[in-house]
Write a structure and sequence with these properties.
The complex is a heterodimer.
Chain A: H1 3-28, H2 38-55, H3 61-75, H4 78-96, H5 103-120, H6 129-139, H7 149-170, H8 172-177, H9 182-203, H10 209-227, E1 242-249, H11 255-263, E2 266-274, E3 277-284, H12 287-295, E4 299-307, H13 308-319, E5 322-331, H14 334-342, E6 347-350, H15 359-367, E7 371-377, H16 384-393, E8 397-400, H17 406-414, H18 422-433, E9 437-443, E10 448-450, E11 453-455, E12 460-464, E13 467-472, H19 475-488, E14 493-498, H20 507-518, E15 526-531, E16 539-543
Parallel strand pairs in A: 5-6, 5-7, 7-8, 14-15
Antiparallel strand pairs in A: 1-3, 1-4, 2-3, 9-12, 9-16, 10-11, 12-13, 14-16
Helix pairs in contact in A: 1-2, 1-9, 1-10, 2-3, 2-4, 3-4, 4-5, 5-6, 5-7, 6-7, 6-9, 7-9, 9-10, 15-16, 17-18, 19-20
Chain B: E1 3-4, E2 9-14, E3 29-32, E4 35-38, E5 41-44, H1 51-60, E6 66-68, H2 72-85, E7 88-93, H3 101-109, E8 115-119, H4 125-140, E9 142-143, H5 144-157, E10 159-163, H6 168-172, E11 189-196, E12 199-207, H7 209-222, E13 231-236, H8 243-253, E14 258-264, H9 267-273, E15 278-283
Helix pairs in contact in B: 2-3, 4-5, 7-8
The chains are: A alpha/beta, B alpha/beta.
Chain lengths: ~550, ~280
């Protein structure tokens, strides 16, 4: 594979690993400010680099490294992102000068990375990303040029993991919260992902398993031990309110002068970059003053001002949630909604065919619950995508079960378990969907042809998995045909959600019709009738 | 080595072992009743109130029954009486996680060096199945250490599974154990409950009668090998009509097996399980 291909795989590997760990790293984040965004910041910074490299034409080592350096500087987000950009810079400047890629290059790159990181921070604090990158660099500083790359990588990641573990004792804020440093941990994850990406580029296959598996095991072990134990209110707010960062472009930027000014405006100040482009980061109460001073020296761009007090509150809220899974379902009809509640669904919002809820409604429903993890049952094909969007917008772990009908959603609900984790519970619920068929009986809204059969407006139609199976003027007959079809195709249990108002039929009529329809072809089928009350569909059917 | 036989060894249980009618009326066997209270009326389980009488009363009573364990003194008099005719006494009680009965029996037994009291970590007719398997060995005569090995094997490897139409009684009596968050009673769900580490635990939530029976047979398969001759017991509260289909499903799953006993849920277990419960116990010997 080419240098460019390798670079892309390394970055993609880092992004993939950080994506998996982002929420966890966010939860770990208590220092320097418990604003819960370290995971997101690291991920977005690396993602920005990946995007930059994808867009750039460079395919030689030196050219690619300068794209990476610039991309990380421009894309750096938050305190951890800016420090990461300096680690990247130090490493890439060293690699750019290399003739071949080998263990010695990595060793030197780590030294460069560590030195650049320490240079960027005015008053380096131990127990942070800085300690982790330095430990990794020092672990291999004295190795000979002949050491193999795998051996070197193992030494580096082991040293990194140990350094991460040590952070909990190095910083008072971490010791009190009982967590390792978020940035340091994120850096280790990033490096592991990058190594996995490199291996993938070398072998051409995704044999990254050992690296990621290790990473997620650590996450699990920690997640229960540390996160559960974090006292959300024992953490102090930042002295300053706004995390402020921006790019400053100009010909004669006086870095020293800017650094002096920014340092006077708050803490966690970082002024990095060079050659006409600086990245400036500071925690301050006066973002306007910083921006206005800087804008007198050059052009400002990519301004980001985040209210850390609000972020801290959000993180605190997230961590004080109940460590359990709750369920949000979308349903229509009083009977169906009551059924979801009885099956353990804590929030049921109105919606269904032709009345889809918005993503905002779903987000509000999720956030009204005090559970740390939530599964969402959309119960309609048109709502699945909205649910996915809502899941991405929520401040907690949300998994969507791909239920496309009410009967399917109810069947999935039986597999719901509040004591799991959202992803696992959703997987079990999705698994039941594989064994459920859905049918619906309704009136044709206009003259049309469905699956090659002409139907008149107002005619009763029975659809099984979306396909026309029976039609006619007699609801009982159409229902019987649908049930017989499902039964003779192997259904053991048929659930019927009724809304018979105005149909002139009773549930008892349907029970007779079902028994008669199945008497010959499928006498062992069991039926369960529930008053569903859904609009538009006198009968909804689930078959398992 | 001491050889244990029906002549020198007696067995004591409490009434939560839900035996077939008359089982403990024979020599060398004693059942100490727990009590069931309907308001101010107190009945000795299986003595003053037979299972059919209890379920009739449960259906008609305006108040829900409560239960209470035997006293230490009640066990003491049983042990004292048996010790006159038997050198050895084995006592088997329902899980100490569900009742203080074991503890009362153990304290009574402190005064009798050859009374051995077991916390079976299970409940209901599974305990009578154990008694029956022990008696078969006593009838043939068995060295003491071999019988102890067998009891240890049974306690470690037996399983039971039951189906209840509602979790209401278990929940109300506080006996639902680890099945606390299980949903039953709605949408045709048939809760399948097992015993794990001496407490009730959810095995599965299954909808539909046939599928529930299939899941019960699946439980048997999970805990045995294809050619095992599994020793089975089946029993119910007031739902014996469910047992033929259950046994058919179990024997289809493990054809070499045999149902050796049919218990009956008594008043105390019935108080906590309610009507319509049916169950099986299994041991691969």
């Amino acid at each position: 594979m080419s240098v460019r291909g390798h670079t892309l795989e390394v970055l993609a590997g880092a992004v993939a690993a950080l994506e998996v760990e982002r929420d966890y790293v966010n939860d770990l984040n208590v220092y320097p400010v418990p604003d819960g965004d370290t995971g997101t910041n690291l991920l977005l910074t690396v993602q920005a680099v990946l995007d930059e490299v994808r867009a750039a034409p460079a395919d030689d080592l030196a050219g690619l490294m300068s794209v990476v350096i610039r991309g990380s500087l421009m894309g750096a987000r938050g305190n951890s992102g800016v420090i990461l950009s300096q680690i990247v810079r130090g490493a890439c400047e060293s690699i750019a000068a290399a003739q071949a890629f080998n263990a010695a290059v990595v060793r030197d790159a780590l030294r460069g990375a560590s030195e650049a990181a320490y240079r960027a921070v005015r008053q380096p604090v131990e127990g942070t990303m800085l300690s982790v990158i330095r430990a990794m660099a020092e672990a291999v500083a004295d190795t000979p040029d002949t050491i193999s790359l795998p051996a070197l990588v193992t030494t580096v990641t082991t040293a990194g993991a140990e350094a991460v573990e040590r952070t909990v004792d190095q910083l008072e804020a971490l010791r009190r919260a009982g967590v390792v440093d978020a940035g340091g941990y994120g850096l280790l994850i990033l490096l592991r992902g990058a190594v996995a990406g490199f291996l993938k580029a070398e072998t051409g296959s995704a044999s990254a398993a050992p690296v990621t598996a290790d990473g997620s095991d650590r996450r699990r072990g920690r997640a229960t031990r540390h996160i559960a134990g974090i006292p959300p209110d024992a953490l102090e707010d930042s002295r300053f309110r706004y995390c402020t960062s921006f790019l400053l472009l100009g010909d004669d930027l006086d870095r020293t002068d800017l650094e002096r000014f920014v340092n006077g405006q708050g803490d966690c100040a970082l002024v990095v970059g060079g050659e006409g482009l600086l990245k400036i980061h500071v925690h301050t109460d006066h973002p306007g003053a910083v921006l206005s001073y800087a804008s007198a020296h050059g052009t400002i761009d990519d301004v980001e001002v985040a209210d850390m007090r609000e972020q801290t509150r959000a993180r605190r809220r997230r961590l004080s949630l109940d460590q359990r899974v709750a369920c949000v379902a979308v349903a229509a009809g009083e009977g169906n909604k009551a059924l979801f509640h009885e099956l353990g669904c804590e929030a049921v919002i109105d919606g269904g065919q032709s009345m889809n809820p918005s993503a905002a409604q779903l987000v509000a429903a999720v956030e009204s619950l005090d559970a740390a993890e939530v599964v969402v049952l959309p119960n309609n094909g048109n709502v699945v995508l909205t649910a996915e969007q809502a899941a991405a917008m929520c401040d907690r772990r949300v998994a969507v079960v791909a239920s496309t009908s009410l009967p399917a959603g109810l069947a999935a609900m039986v597999a719901f378990d509040a004591d799991g984790d959202a992803a696992g519970v959703a997987a079990a619920m999705n698994e039941t969907l594989d064994h459920v068929r859905s049918a619906e009986i309704t009136h044709a809204v206009r003259d049309s042809e469905i699956d090659g059969v002409a139907v008149r407006e107002g005619e009763i139609i029975g659809l099984v998995d979306g396909h026309l199976t029976a039609s006619g003027d007699d609801l009982r007959a159409v229902f019987g045909e649908v049930v017989r079809t499902l039964g003779s195709q192997g259904a053991e249990l048929i659930t019927i959600l009724t809304a018979l108002n105005g149909c002139g039929l009773t549930v008892a009529d349907l029970q007779d019709a079902a028994a008669a329809a199945c008497a010959t072809d499928c006498p062992l089928v069991e039926f369960l009738f529930q008053e569903g009350g859904q609009p538009l569909y006198p009968i909804l059917i689930g078959a398992e | 080595m001491t050889r244990l036989t029906l002549d020198n060894t007696a067995i004591v249980v409490d009434s939560t072992c839900d035996p077939p009618p008359g089982y403990f009326d024979r020599p060398g066997l004693a059942m100490v009743p727990l009590k069931v209270n309907f308001g101010d009326e107190s009945y000795r389980d299986g003595v003053d109130l037979s299972p059919p009488e209890f379920f009739a009363k449960l259906a008609s009573s305006p108040v829900l029954p409560t239960t209470s364990q035997p006293t230490v003194g009640e066990f003491t008099s049983v042990y004292a009486a048996l010790r006159r005719d038997y050198e050895h006494v084995l006592a088997f009680h329902l899980s100490s996680a569900m009742s203080g009965t074991y503890e009362a029996s153990r304290r009574a037994a402190e005064a009798f060096p050859t009374v051995e009291v077991y916390d079976t970590r299970t409940v209901s007719a599974t305990i009578t199945l154990l008694v029956e398997r022990v008696r078969i060995r006593l009838a043939a005569g068995i060295p003491s250490d071999e019988l102890h090995d067998f009891i240890a094997h049974f306690l470690a490897h037996n399983h039971m599974l039951f189906q209840v139409p509602t979790l209401e009684y278990l929940r109300r009596g506080g006996r639902i154990g680890r099945a606390q968050s299980m949903v039953g009673d709605v949408f045709g769900i048939r809760p399948l409950i097992t015993v794990v580490d001496g407490e009730l635990g959810a095995y599965a939530k299954v909808r539909g009668e046939r599928r529930a029976l299939e899941a019960m047979a699946g439980f048997l398969r999970e805990h045995s090998q294809a050619d095992d001759a599994v020793v089975l017991a089946t029993w119910s509260s007031d739902a014996d009509d469910k047992l033929p289909a259950l046994e058919e499903a179990l024997l289809a799953a493990r054809p070499r097996s045999e149902v050796v006993q049919h218990g009956r849920v008594g008043a105390v277990v019935g108080t906590h399980g309610g009507q319509g419960m049916f169950a099986f116990a299994m041991i691969v010997e």
